[in-house]
Response regulator
Amino acid sequence: MNRINTTWVIDDDEIYRFAIKLIMKRADITEKTLFFHNGKTAIDCFTENLQNPDELPDLILLDLNMPVLDGWQFLDAYEKLKPQISKNITIYLVSSTIDEQDYNRAKAISCVTELIVKPLTVKDIQRILSAFNLD
């Protein structure tokens, strides 16, 4: 089975991070998964690795509601860095939101593939994988 090289999970919820770690392992779709507690630590990692695309993610699972830098603020910062990033990165928002405004806002952001409501399932992960063109 083909796998995604690197996945970043940006979420402050410890229980969710534990669950997603198990789901990712069970689905066996990624070589490496890194976890960030907020958007700022992830943006800092982007900034540090702009010249090293192998250290950047292929897939980001991004929560919306986090301290320090939330998902929307992360996306604003990411959009500013995007011209310097030399690889395609797929971003899924993963949130417990049921607010239609969040869905509409997510659809309006070109770098966001989709907003998925938590909890993420193995089926969701497999659907994400099928959207990747892996050789």
